[in-house]
Amino acid sequence: MIEKKYSELKQLLNEGKITPTQLTQVYLDRIESVDPKIKAFLRIKPSEILKKAEESTERRKSGKKLSDFDGMPIGIKDNICIQGEYTTCSSQILENFVSPYNATVIEKLLSHGFILFPGLNMDEFAMGSSTENSSYQVTRNPFDTQRIPGGSSGGSAAAVAAGMLPVSLGSDTGGSIRQPASLCGVYGLKPTYGRVSRYGLVAYASSLDQIGPIANDLSGIEDVLHVISGKDNRDSTSLSLPEISPSNPISLKGLKVGVMKVADEWEDSVKEKYSSILDELKSKGSELIELDFSLHDYSIPIYYIIATAECSSNLSRFDGIRYGKRVDQKKKLEDLYLDTRTSGFGTEVKRRILLGTFSLSSGYYDAYYGQAQKARVLIRKSYEEFFKKVDVILQPTSPTTAFRVGEKTQDPIQMYRADVLTTSVNLAGLPSMSIPGGTDEKGLPIGMQITVPSFEESRLLSFARSLSDWKSLEISLPGKIS
User: Residues with catalytic annotation?
Assistant: First the structure.
């Protein structure tokens, strides 16, 4: 059962060939079997999850199913609030925090009958590209457990790739859905900024964060996106948009595909796979148009100035007074702040708070944060110019395949550069998705990133649908994990 795609499971549920209880038990057994090696879950409550599955089974038996998705398991990243559940953001400072409310996306999933599997591991407060920055455990890549799954949504991607779930939710600030999806050989979508409510998502960088799905097939992405999208009065940045139409393959003949020049720093396997995909597109009649991405070389410094500034502001609320961990040994207010935040935050979070506080400080605001915001506008305008020439943009998602655990932890700059191909999309607020793009000679997944104009998710999904049956892009998820 675990080898079946989301679309197959949905069909089995709706034909009554499997019950939600049976399906949920299959995944709970799989989690018990392989998660000790993968460590995708921070916590799991089988009895509570099974109770919800049994309620779904009864609804289906009585003809009162909530939707076609009623009884479908879905994993939840640990920075999305679920009422009555721990929401720790993989941080010591929130180790005992139980959410008093549901995020909007959780309300929508529950209203459609999805079975929630909470507690997927992540980089602390979504700050990282490898899920090595979790305060609790390092998640492993199912294709090679000596390697990272990507981050910050590494737990969400690894759980799907390891057959522990058919679909999950992650969050993407600078590539944190797409990059782990790429390294784990699954699909991962960052929607247009504003399409999905951020209410109940613990904020890292508010102008960049966006919740999105990770799945083992394109139908899972499409269905979950349809469910979680929409205007929310509790999030002033969310937008009222037309529903996304069902995707159908589009003709590749005459399609204008924006491409980029192969870069020296990409791994050879990524270069070769990208070139072969472009050759195949050309053979099918697509018009390949090389775009000038030279301005995007600045996307990493622009992104890290803006993101760290916003994280410095957002994380100021974790002070030991309102909620979360409290260290008050000296009974002095200033020491309470200092001791709580020193013991509660990990190294990478402290680094980003310091960087952000500096760039927002008096005398440096205009030189750093102000300039970064001006440069961000240039990135957005560059995409506007791109889409005057092309219909879609196709690039690799990551310049490398999954690297080994510990390989880059001592060099933050190299770790930051893992997102070199993804951050500009967040700066521009565009929709973008990583799709499986085949494997290298070691069997490690390579992902390809599709980007389209704002609110054009239908175009993105249709183009991905046209590529999804290419044998050269298929990745068989690992059944046996060692």
Answer: 77, 152, 176
Domain of 196: which CATH number?
Answer: 3.90.1300.10
Residue numbers of the chain with a pLDDT score lower than 70:
482
Cα end-to-end span (Å), the chain:
20
Report how far Cα 420 is from the mean position of its chain's Cα atoms: 16
Indicate the number of domains in the chain.
Answer: 1
Burial (CB count within 10 angstroms: exposed 0-12, middle 13-18, buried 19+), residue 181: buried
Between the CA of residue 14 and those of 17, 68, 248, what are the distances in Å? 8, 6, 22
**Backbone angles phi and psi of 190, in degrees to 5:** -100, 115
Altogether, the residues listed in the chain come to a count of 482
How do 73-77 and 115-120 pair as beta strands? parallel
Identify how many contiguous H helices and E strands the chain contains and give both numbers.
15, 10
| pLDDT at 109 (0 to 100) | 98
Q: Which residue has the tokens 């396997």?
A: 269
Whole domain around residue 283: which residue ranges?
A: 1-482
Strands (E), 17-100: 73-77
- pLDDT confidence of residue 62: 97
Output the six-digit token pair for 286: 């697509």
Note the helical H segments in 345-422: 347-360, 371-389, 412-416
Amino acid at 333: L
Q: What is the pLDDT of residues 332-372, one digit of tens each?
A: 988 899 999 999 999 999 999 999 999 999 889 999 999 99
- pTM, full prediction: 0.97
Q: What is the largest CA-CA distance in the chain?
A: 72
Q: What is the pLDDT of residue 272?
A: 97
Q: What are phi and psi of 242, to 5 degrees?
A: -60, 150
Q: How far apart are CA 69 and CA 66, in angstroms?
A: 8
Closest by CA position to 422, among listed 379, 469, 384: 379
The pLDDT assigned to 3 comes to: 86
Determine the pLDDT at residue 373.
97
Residue identified by tokens 């791994």 is 267
pLDDT of amino acid 291:
98
Q: Contacts for 251-255 with beta carbons within 8 Å, 24 or more apart?
A: 251/466, 252/281, 252/284, 252/285, 252/286, 252/466, 253/284, 253/285, 253/286, 254/285, 254/286, 254/287, 255/285, 255/286, 255/287, 255/391, 255/392, 255/463
Which stretches does DSSP call E strand in 187-269? 187-190, 210-215, 256-259
| Per-residue pLDDT at 247 | 85
